[in-house]
């Protein structure tokens, strides 16, 4: 038997012993973040497949309870989902992109028209300064207008870009189906890897995170869909150019608190001022459409469909979207809100444990 070395001491007497697990989890998180950062350019189809599988699993489970096999239920749900998605993409997205490209192409001409209309309404001193600004903006927009077709042509002719698009639409549905089929097995595998003493606590955190994600994202998808239809139809009725593109952008960015509202309103009202200059009735009609949409979003749709599922301050959500988008690109922006919701659940749990600790209460350890 090896004699005990008093210089080493027991593990429980080591002052760093209570923090080893914490540093271990921090190390795991850093390694996972580094892997995500390195592979962010290729993760998009897998991330979207994982998100779809997460949302579609309840439908698959409901069908299996009615007697269908897991494989048959997964194939039926995936077929219906991707059939609907392709219908929407094939219908609205090309129209929205066409209108968006047309909008970018007419910006220099629209600026010139606005400048001509303003020349009769502003003093000469302001007119001189405005002309200088107009020249600068016009030159910038002309440069942008001349550059965009070249960029678009290069992207369209890029073999790697074409391969990426094809890989996305081939890999993403296949991965989604496999995840739907193996979802219970995947969850069981993750559960089996949890440290046994902390497994109940980690399962409770996972349930809280799941409730936050389900409540927020499902509700926000419904809110964005309703707003896209509302703005597209309402702006088309008043004759706003590029109404479909503007409505799609306004509804799609509404998931970003306050910032999305500012982007959508600025875009729609700005185009209305350009189009209906000198006819304030139609400008006010567009303003009223956005006012009604913002009221419905903040007072009706979000409280009823989303509620307090995430329980995070809007500033934190804005920071999360910008930060993750900057580090991980589009994939980061896509998973920013789920990660922010998960972080919020973990932070609230840590604060609760801290309030129960002797460090906070001042008692003996």
Polypeptide structure, described:
The chain has about 375 residues and is mostly helical. Helix content is about 80%, strand content about 0%. It is built from twelve helices and no strands. It has helices at about 20-40, 45-65, 70-120, 125-155, 160-190, 200-235, 245-250, 260-275, 280-305, 315-330, 330-355, 360. The radius of gyration is 27 Å and the shape is globular. The two termini are about 35 Å apart.
Secondary structure topology:
Elements: H1 20-38, H2 44-65, H3 70-119, H4 124-157, H5 159-192, H6 199-237, H7 243-252, H8 259-275, H9 280-306, H10 314-328, H11 330-356, H12 358-361
Helix pairs in contact: 2-3, 2-5, 3-4, 3-5, 3-7, 6-7, 6-9, 6-11, 7-8, 8-9, 10-11
Summarize model confidence as the mean pLDDT.
74
Per DSSP E runs of 2 or more residues, the count of β-strands stands at: 0
Rg calculated over all Cα atoms: 27 Å
What is the tally of helical segments? Answer: 12
Distance between the termini: 33 Å
Contiguous low-pLDDT stretches (5 residues minimum) are 6-12, 155-159
The amount of beta strand, in percent, is under 5%
Helical content stands at over 70%
The main sheet comes to: none
- Categorize the overall geometry: globular
Order of helices and strands: HHHHHHHHHHHH
Structural class: mainly alpha
């Amino acid at each position: 038997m090896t004699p005990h070395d008093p210089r080493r001491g027991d593990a429980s007497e080591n002052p760093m012993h209570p923090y080893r697990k914490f540093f271990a989890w921090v190390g795991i998180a850093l390694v996972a973040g580094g892997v995500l950062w390195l592979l962010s350019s290729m993760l998009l189809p897998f991330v979207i497949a994982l998100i779809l599988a997460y949302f579609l699993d309840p439908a698959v489970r409901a069908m299996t309870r009615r007697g269908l096999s897991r494989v048959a239920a997964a194939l039926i749900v995936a077929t219906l989902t991707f059939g609907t998605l392709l219908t929407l993409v094939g219908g609205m997205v090309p129209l929205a992109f066409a209108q968006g490209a047309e909008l970018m192409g007419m910006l220099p001409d629209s600026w010139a028209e606005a400048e001509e209309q303003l020349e009769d309404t502003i003093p000469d001193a302001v007119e001189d300064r405005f002309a200088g600004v107009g020249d600068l903006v016009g030159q910038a927009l002309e440069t942008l207008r001349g550059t965009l077709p070249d960029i678009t042509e290069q992207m369209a002719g890029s073999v790697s870009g074409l391969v990426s698009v094809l890989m996305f639409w081939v890999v993403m549905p296949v991965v989604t189906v496999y995840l739907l089929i193996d979802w219970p097995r995947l969850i069981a595998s993750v559960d089996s890897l949890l440290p046994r003493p902390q497994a109940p606590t980690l399962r409770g955190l996972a349930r809280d995170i799941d409730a936050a994600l389900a409540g927020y994202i499902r509700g926000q998808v419904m809110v964005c869909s309703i707003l896209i239809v509302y703005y597209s139809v309402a702006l088309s009725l008043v004759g706003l150019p590029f109404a479909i593109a503007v409505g799609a952008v306004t509804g799609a960015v509404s998931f970003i608190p306050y910032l999305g509202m500012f982007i959508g309103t600025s875009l729609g009202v700005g185009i209305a001022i350009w189009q209906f200059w000198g006819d304030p009735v139609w400008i006010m009609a567009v303003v009223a459409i956005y006012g009604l949409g913002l009221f419905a979003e903040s007072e009706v749709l979000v409280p009823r469909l989303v509620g307090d599922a995430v329980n995070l301050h809007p500033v934190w959500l804005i920071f999360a979207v910008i930060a993750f988008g900057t580090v991980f690109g589009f994939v980061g922006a896509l998973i920013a809100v789920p990660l922010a919701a998960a972080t919020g659940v973990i932070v609230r749990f840590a604060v609760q444990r801290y309030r129960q600790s002797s460090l906070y209460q001042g008692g003996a350890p």
